[in-house]
Known about the structure:
Layout: E1 2-5, E2 8-16, E3 25-35, H1 36-42, E4 47-63, E5 66-82, E6 87-91, E7 94-99, E8 102-111, E9 117-126, E10 132-148, E11 156-170, E12 175-184, E13 189-191
Antiparallel strand pairs: 1-2, 2-3, 3-4, 4-5, 5-6, 5-7, 7-8, 8-9, 9-10, 10-11, 11-12, 11-13
Amino acid sequence: MSLIGNGNDIAANGNYYLDNELQQFDATAVIEKLNMATLAGLSRGAIKNATGNLHGNFKGNGKFADPRWKGDLNFDTTKFTLTQLGTAFKINSQQIIFDYPAVTVNNFTIRDTLDHLLKIDGSVSVNKVKSLDINLDIDAKDFIILNAPKAINSEFYGYAVADIDIKVTGNTVSPNIEGDIAIKDKKQYHHHHT
């Protein structure tokens, strides 16, 4: 299977094995180029103004109920806006590593429009009880998290900048979140809940 055109170049193939209970499938994907605008189109409006590209390789195999994976996904000069928050972000030369049982980010850096950094470091791993173990550090200073005008049906609007220092551990069943999020100048931030 291939997806070529509109700034995309992806090739994927796989096999399904009916007679092998331990090796039910194998699959590979080579992402030479995935246009961020394509992802925005698939996001149902959650992402807009998307530019840049992703590239990487991915292999998966094993049982459908217990798959194994290996690969990477790389961000190349990507920019996008989270529609609900009105906040634009940039991700350049960053990588997500898939190496069973973990998905790892090493100082994964996201920049806001003023080039303030939000860094994510750590991993999420499959454990034996089929939940995910979490070990992530999230840090930012003066990071723009909201920049949206008031509009009909806006849950969040205004302008918000935050300092973030959080450690997330535990698992998806019982996460442990420790740290601080400090919203600066709270008069500019509004939350409308219906």
